[in-house]
Design brief:
The complex is a heterotrimer of chains A (514), B (369) and C (329). Chain B is mainly alpha-helical and 369 residues long. Chain B is built from 15 helices and two strands. Chain B has a single domain, classed as ABC transporter involved in vitamin B12 uptake, BtuC (Orthogonal Bundle). The two termini of chain B are 16 Å apart. Chain C is an all-alpha fold. The chains are: A alpha/beta (514), B mainly alpha (369), C mainly alpha (329).
């Protein structure tokens, strides 16, 4: 079987200002295969694919489709080359029906939604989708929306499909279903490119794997001839033993207890289902799970940002030993109770900091309301800003630079620095090293370890299992809003955690009933 | 070959967002835009007066400052008075805008403030002593404006009701209430004769002194409020990111309602200044569209009270100066509205060059080759 | 009496209906054009200038005037004037990414200024005693009634006695409804207003749609201006007479929940409310002023109800008021 190259990239380079997102990338994808583009967060995978789908235009290099050079300056031109991309954030109009979304932007032929619905049915049957053309997008589940996105691309006759992190939001069952569909498409002769950073998916789904690291093309291997460790090595460079320092917890005592809390979001979906755990002083409790399993809701519940349907949260004051309930308290009330709770949220510039304010003003966010004066006192925040800039080596023109102009790592240092400065007794961090370079990441690990040594109870929500296993003392795994297990980080394996993460939801229910 | 077709199809230039332009350079662009619009104003005025550029500007200056150099300050005070009213409204709107609350209701909030003033002047003018009457006027005007601002704010806070449209509608409700009141009080004549009670005192033969000093004070206070007060800080946080506000425990609903009370209250003050400090009467055209112009002033002033002083000074200069030019040419005063509109559009447009930069592909390639 | 009341309400409704239909077209593309009052002003004065010139060219003698030209010249002038305003607005907001509220309000200042300035200049030229300019000859061509209207009694008066601009307004509103809901162009336009990033990704030219929607919207709104002068005011232009009809049109957009077909009924209701006081016994002039408040109160009530109910189909276009910049995603 001779394969035809569907798409070839030659020496593609793309810069954003001073940042080089892609540098001399070469890539080939064939018809009738599934190619994985593998790389860590921020390795330039999405940027590269956006250039194929016409959203960005490369600064240098050439793209060849079926052997002929192609200039793709807009998504429309990409459709012309039969390229279709399914973005990570769905590009759907919420108030439109599925059919309206699918035909959107198509110019040839008569506009007739009934005929389109028939066509959609045909495609659905061919590949095994299940979708109601008349259903409005805003009433759909994530997986249904994804289905609409894929049909949208197929409806246009695309035979090169690019999927950006398609499984990030799916349940394991939904993922399996998607993979089956993708395989059917491959057998149908389509070229499928899937962007991912999940190794097990790469191995189970794709025919070949291309790896990017820090915007550079590293190489391509056949899936059947590679292994997880080889891919990891390509992804992260030389195999690193993370070697994160970890001391035994000292003087542990009960600090925070979460007592069977349940949380429901605006649409009525249960985000946290009867979650219970406790965290002790001087330990790091890791929280692992697939993205969107309730991590955010869990931390926000403790921080006083989520309304609890059921359950309670108790804080044990280290000085008085008193047990206090945090239920139905807002962040300000929690602070006024004398609970020194610090929280580094996932959305740094959208929640933890104010992007347009300078470092000094961001230092005041938590403390500005102290005292009875009507006016702000900027002395303390100013010296705190200087201290953090010095101690954590924040690269910034000055303390009066708006934080949105800092790089990701420096933004995080500012945020973590501020949260630690209030000498917390409980510290919650969500994905604290996401998008950070190695040095900044280690600085964050060290800061967390220092806090642990000072007796702070730390909750660490992470995505990188290697880090969780090396840094934490205990790891709690959650799946679909419920606790699926708590393991000792010193004796567990990544496989054990991975199994707990993907434990089907029904399991728990059956056990509960039986 | 391939390269040739390639370069043909590539976009000639593309626009890139930038947020790193130094403040100095940004102001240079804005000042250049102002200079450009003054040149344009001169040229347009020349076209209608058929006089030289210099003479045209001479007429404009005489329209604004009168015979100032001969020691006649009447026109100057009038100029300052007009600035004061527009500036007061712009200042009033600023905290709301900083919170990203589009208060388009300055017109109505000022109208009800003015209504409260005239109502007190007529009802209690003869029965209350002057100091008490003035206190009553001040308090009721502020309250009336504040209520007019709070109504849309409450719905915004509770149901996220679109405030742009809500506040716009409130303007016309206020207008009709005034029309109703004028009809009743004016005995069907549609005119309320100037009321002698509850007028601001004349200082040194000058009617507008109180108005001007009041607004000067508000300018400084507003600057301090936004920059140094805790409430001002809360407004910035809520405006930048409601999520962050929640995260630090700011009560967003409370801040929205409180800020709109201040915004509306200050508009009420502007209405009071117009009634008690200038007209001593009221009609539906009391604010005369300044409530809308103030929106533009606050925005062009980058929400900075002191820059707003400059912006309002420029706009009022054009309004009075160009009106004089139109007069000289026996043309309608509306010519100045056209000019003000054009100048504002130029200033609004020039922001593009501060926030975006245009990158030409072609030139870049040539440099490489 | 009732027939007269209804006819009067329709007459009041038509300029608003034009403004509303135009603004709906614009808002469906995601741009909140607060310059519509200014645009309608310019639409009116451009038409007035056109008809003024034509009347003069015919030596101010109705016998020399060609009915078709007398109608088409003002209409084309009106459209040209308002499209230029639309172009200014779209250039600033679409191309230069200027703030929409600020641009719109500045455009209203400019438009009203232009209207009053040109109006006053024309009055100057005619050396008229009154502060107004009468184009009654042109108006007579605008207000031609269907020949059989009078033969059908009250029924004829109710349905057939109106000027052709009234029917045109309804036709345009219905046509816009059809285009928005039943055609590909309409689907594309709605997607541009709901989610420009999605539309862009689907290959729709967001910039083109926003420009065209704003300009067509302005043209339709401008027709409301000239209709007001020629039909409602019988060809008499006086400065500021147009009043706040432009703002009322914006209110009506909300009241009609962004549906032009609903705007037909809404405009009629607003017209009736503006005018009810003249026909309800025992209402004084003072109460008339309070009655004029009702359209705005009704709009606020609708605004509140829709925001409380949060029904997705009744919300403004999701990206209304937000400029689109592709690289910002």
């Amino acid at each position: 079987m001779t394969k035809q190259p569907a798409i070839e990239l030659k020496n593609i380079t793309k810069r954003f200002g001073k940042v080089v997102a892609n540098k001399n990338v070469n890539l080939t994808a064939y018809r009738g295969e599934i190619l994985s583009v593998l790389g860590e967060n921020g390795s330039g995978k999405t940027t590269l694919m956006n250039m194929i789908s016409g959203i960005y235009f490369p600064d240098e290099g050439h793209i060849f489709i079926d052997g002929k050079e192609a200039v793709i300056t807009s998504p429309k031109e990409a459709f012309g080359y039969k390229i279709g991309m399914i973005h990570q954030h769905f590009k759907l109009v919420d108030v439109f029906s599925a059919a309206e979304n699918i035909v959107l932007g198509i110019e040839n032929g008569k506009y007739n939604l009934k005929d389109s619905a028939k066509e959609i049915k045909k495609i659905s049957e061919q590949y095994g989708f299940d979708v109601d053309p008349k259903k409005k997008i805003y009433t759909m589940s994530v997986s249904e929306k994804q289905t609409v996105e894929i049909i949208k691309v197929l409806y246009r006759g695309a035979d090169i499909l690019i999927l950006d992190e398609p499984t990030a939001v799916l349940t394991p069952q939904e993922t399996e279903k998607l993979f089956a569909i993708l395989r059917r498409m491959r057998d149908d002769g389509k070229c499928i490119i899937i962007i991912t950073h999940k190794l097990h998916e790469v191995l189970s789904l794709s025919d070949r794997v291309s790896v990017l690291r820090k915007g550079e093309y590293i190489g391509t291997v056949n899936t059947s001839e590679t292994s997880e460790s080889e891919l990891t090595e390509m992804m992260v460079g030389k195999k690193i033993d993370l070697n994160i320092q970890r001391d035994e917890p000292k003087n542990t005592e009960e600090r925070l207890t979460v007592n069977s809390i349940t949380c429901v979001d605006k649409t009525g979906t249960v985000m946290l289902d009867n979650v219970s755990f406790s965290v002790k002083s001087g330990e790091i409790l890791g929280i692992a799970g697939i993205a969107g399993s309730g991590q955010r809701e869990l931390l926000e519940s403790i921080a006083g940002l989520q309304r609890l349907e059921y359950g309670d949260i108790f804080y044990f004051d280290p000085k008085t030993g008193k047990k206090e309930s945090l239920r139905d308290k807002n962040p300000l009330q929690i602070r006024q109770m004398g609970v020194r709770l610090s929280f580094v949220p996932e959305d740094r510039l959208g929640m933890g900091l104010v992007g347009n304010m300078d470092i000094v003003d961001n230092m005041m966010l938590r403390s500005y309301s102290k005292g009875h004066s009507l006016f702000l006192k900027r002395n303390k925040p100013k010296s705190l800003a200087m201290k953090i800039i010095n101690d954590l080596e924040v690269v910034t023109p000055s303390a009066s630079t708006p934080v949105r102009r800092l790089s990701g790592g420096n933004v995080q240092k500012v945020l973590v620095g501020r949260e630690i400065s209030s000498s917390p007794t409980v510290l919650m961090v969500a994905y604290p090293v996401r998008g950070l370079d190695i040095n900044s990441s280690y600085m964050i690990y060290n800061l967390l370890n220092q806090q642990k040594a000072q007796g702070v109870a730390i909750i660490f929500v992470g995505e990188d299992l290697d880090v969780l296993v090396e840094l934490c003392d205990r790891i709690m795994v959650i799946g679909s809003g419920r606790v699926t297990g708590v393991v000792d980080a010193r004796t567990t394996t990544k496989e054990e955690i991975g199994l707990l993460m993907t434990k089907p939801k029904d399991d728990g229910k059956e056990n509960g009933n039986g | 070959m391939a390269k040739k077709t390639d370069s043909k199809k590539e976009p000639l230039f593309h626009v890139v967002k930038r947020d790193d332009m130094p403040a100095g350079k940004a102001w240079l662009i804005r000042i250049a835009a102002i200079v450009f619009s003054f040149l344009l104003v001169g040229l347009l005025s020349m076209a209608i007066t058929e006089k030289s550029f210099g003479e045209t500007y001479e007429i404009m200056f005489s329209g604004v400052f009168g015979r100032l150099f001969e020691g006649k300050t009447t026109m100057l005070w009038k100029y300052l008075q007009e600035i004061a009213i527009l500036l007061c409204l712009a200042l009033a709107l600023t905290p709301a805008f900083k919170m990203k609350f589009w208060n388009c209701g300055a017109e109505g909030q000022a109208l009800v403030g003015g209504l409260a003033s005239i109502f007190c002047m007529i009802q209690f003018g003869s029965s209350l002593s002057y100091p008490v009457l003035m206190v009553v006027i001040v308090v009721t005007s502020i309250l009336a404006g504040a209520i007019w601002g709070i109504i849309p704010a409450v719905f915004k806070a509770l149901f996220n009701t679109n405030e742009t449209l809500f506040t716009l509608m409130m303007n016309y409700i206020a207008t009709q209430i005034i029309a109703y009141y004028v009809y009743i009080e004016g005995g069907g004549s549609n005119v309320i004769n100037p009321v002698a009670y509850g007028n601001f005192p004349t200082v040194g033969n000058n009617d507008y002194f109180v108005n001007i000093v009041t607004v000067a004070g508000i300018t400084v206070l507003m600057y301090a409020y936004l920059r140094f007060s805790k409430q001002g800080y809360e407004i910035s946080v809520v405006g930048e990111s409601q999520n962050t506000a929640r995260y630090v425990g700011i009560n967003v609903k409370k801040v929205i309602i409180r800020t709109m009370a201040i915004s509306g209250g200050l508009c009420g003050v502007a209405g009071m200044l117009l009634v008690a400090g200038k007209d001593h009467s009221i009609n539906t055209n009391l604010v005369g569209g300044d409530g809308f112009t103030a929106i533009l002033m606050s925005w062009l002033g980058q929400f900075n009270p002191f820059i707003m002083v400059v912006m309002t000074a420029i706009v009022i200069f054009l309004r009075l100066g160009v009106a004089k030019v139109a007069d000289t040419a026996l043309l309608n005063h509306s010519f100045s509205e056209i000019i003000v509109g054009i100048v504002i559009l130029i200033l609004v447009g020039c922001e593009f060059f501060i926030h975006y930069s245009i990158k030409f592909r072609q030139s870049k390639k040539e440099v490489k080759a | 009496m009732i027939v007269q009341f209804i006819c009067r309400a329709i007459l009041l409704a038509v300029p608003m209906l034009y403004g509303t239909t135009g603004e709906i077209v614009t808002e469906k593309s995601g741009h909140l054009n607060l310059g519509i009052p200014g645009v309608m002003y310019v639409g009116a004065i451009s038409g007035v200038v056109g008809s003024f010139l034509y009347e003069n060219a015919c030596g101010n003698d109705i016998a020399n005037m060609n009915g078709f030209l007398a109608v088409i010249i003002p209409l084309l002038c009106s459209i040209a004037g308002s499209v230029i305003m639309g172009l200014i607005y779209s250039f600033l907001t679409v191309t230069l990414h200027a703030n929409q509220n600020v641009t719109g309000l500045a455009l209203t200042t400019l438009g009203i200024g232009l209207g009053n300035f040109l109006g006053a200049s024309l009055i100057n030229i005619t050396k008229s005693e009154l502060p107004s300019i009468a184009l009654t000859k042109t108006s007579s061509f605008f207000t031609v009634k269907l020949p059989f209207a009078d033969d059908l009694g009250w029924f004829g008066e109710l349905l057939f006695s109106h000027d052709f601009m009234t029917y045109l307004a309804i036709i345009i509103a219905l046509a816009v409804t059809f285009v928005l809901n039943r055609t590909r162009v309409g689907l594309n336009l709605r997607s541009v207003g709901e989610s420009p990033a999605t539309a862009d990704a689907a290959g729709i030219n967001v910039i083109k749609y926003r420009y065209v929607a704003t300009c067509i919207g302005s043209a339709i709104a401008g027709l409301g201006g000239i209709q007001y002068v020629m039909s409602y005011a019988s060809g008499v232009w006086s400065n500021n007479a147009f009043g706040d009809r432009g703002w009322m049109a914006i209110a009506l957009v909300i009241f009609a929940l962004w549906k032009p077909s609903a705007a037909i009924a809404g405009a009629f209701l607003f017209g009736a409310l503006c005018n009810a006081n003249n026909y309800i016994q025992g209402l004084g002039t003072e109460t008339q002023e309070l009655f004029k408040m009702l359209p705005y109160v009704a709009t606020i009530v609708v605004l509140i109800i829709t925001s409380v109910r949060k029904k997705r189909e009744h919300q403004p276009p999701a990206s209304l008021g937000i400029n689109y910049f592709r690289e910002e995603r």
